[in-house]
Amino acid sequence: MLARIASKTVLALCFVLAPYLSDRDAAGADWLTWRGPSLNGIAAAGQTPPTHWSDTQNVVWKTSVPGRGNSSPTVVGNRVVLTTADEQRKIQSVVAFDRTTGKQLWNTVISTGGFPPKIHSRNTHATGTVASDGERLFVTFFHDDAIELTALTLAGKILWQKPVGSFMPRLYQYGYAPSPTIYDTLVIVAADYEGGGHLTAFDRKTGTRNWQTPRPKRLSYSSPIVAHVAGRDQLLISGCDVVASYDPHTGKKLWSTPGTTMATCGTMVWSGDLVFASGGYPKPETICVRADGSGRVVWKNNSKCYEQSMLAHDGYIYAVNDGGIAICWRASDGTKMWESRLAGGSVSSSPILAGGNIYVANERGLTYVFRADPQSFQLVAKNQLGTRAFATPAFCDSQIFVRVTGAGRQETLYCLGTDR
Q1: Scanning 84, 142, 190, 260, which has the fewest C-beta atoms within 10 Å of its C-beta?
Q2: Are the CB atoms for 338 and 325 separated by under 8 Å?
Q3: What is the torsion angle, in degrees rounded to the nearest 10, for the CA atoms of residue 356, residue 361, residue 362 and residue 367?
Q4: How big is the chain by its Cα radius of gyration, in Å?
């Protein structure tokens, strides 16, 4: 079920992110949110992360992670931060590790009890990724039939906790997945379900609710994202049978277009004035929409990238679908450039582009590395780590931070890198 451009767009995003990006972040040393520094699954330029590794090769450090979760690593300053859940004791926590050594720095309990009676077998009670503004950490958890947003200091002290709103899916009790996103002075949270979902924005410093916008009464799992596209900042989200855009300052809907399907998990991507989304339940569809408010569908197909986000790079869309098939389309018209099956299992994590290569792991812990080349599929490497991989890795300062599960369901956080 579950589960990351043109240079002009990246430049525009720098202005969007400027209120909360430090010099360190701008240099690409930190991975502050889901989908990374440019919010699109593309690592900062100039990095040379390893393309080959194993449990012993190119491992800077590895450390055990308490509990279980599908959230991705967030890297801020000297910390690597994860959400995690102890399913037996029904505890949801945020845990931080030293970026240099992997030593656990702190483990802060956010909530106890109130777990939903059922979630999807491949979901966890800690799937949303931590978002950081460089000074604080923001995390959402689902418990007691509601979503709660918590802000913490970088030292793990709780600053404030606020109810986002009710979340009581009954038709499909699959749990919760979206990650919060940061825009200007706000942190924005999505909660789509059949009882009446919503997008909600809070002040990052105080936790004061700034706005809340209703969403269609459908169940979906995608994280919202802010892009500077078609001349303005737009809060983009798919799912609930629509592709939609909102004003991130106010929550007012800018436009929406029927598309994809009821349930999507991937985060939208963009190229020029085009935006792209994909979904998988109850029907598969990948769609390209012009984001100027016209609602014009430029192209669509029946590909199913349900749990994964896609990548938009240099006028092409790269995707790996649920079945482990890598695909490249031309962004302007949807022409399929190539496709190639990645043997070894289904894929739930999202691809990341770094150093000219695309990295994506299947659910069995096998990571494929291939070139971001629209002319042909070019495999660079295959690397096994652990026995289960659902979390998308983070790429910082030519290192890769990877969360995997091994024997006995023990989770491990790896820092991978090469000697320089």
Answers
A1: 84
A2: no
A3: 80
A4: 19
Q: Which residues contact 306 (CB under 8 A, 6 or more apart)?
A: 1, 263, 264, 265, 266, 278, 279, 280, 281, 284, 321, 322
* 63 SS3 class: strand
| Among 277, 268, 280, 281, residue whose Cα is nearest residue 224 | 268
Query: How many domains are there within the chain?
Result: 1
Q: What is the CATH classification number for the domain harbouring 315? A: 2.130.10.10
**Distance in angstroms (rounded) separating the CA atoms of residues 100 and 72:** 18
Note whether 337 and 329 are within 8 A (CB).
yes
- Tell me the per-residue pLDDT of 337-360, one tens digit each, with 9 for 90 and over: 999 999 878 999 999 999 999 999
* 318 domain-assigned: yes
7 residue type, one letter: S
pLDDT at 419: 64
The reply to whether 200 falls in a domain is yes
Q: Give me the percent of the chain exceeding a pLDDT of 90.
A: 89
Per-residue tokens: 120: 């999807």
pTM score > 0.85 for this model? Answer: yes
- Answer whether residue 18 shows pLDDT above 70: no
Examine the pLDDT at 268 and tell me if it is beyond 90: yes
**Which is nearest to 406 in space by CA: 59, 58, 51, 64?**
64
What's the pLDDT tens digit per position in 365-407? Answer: 999 999 999 999 999 999 999 999 999 999 999 999 999 999 8
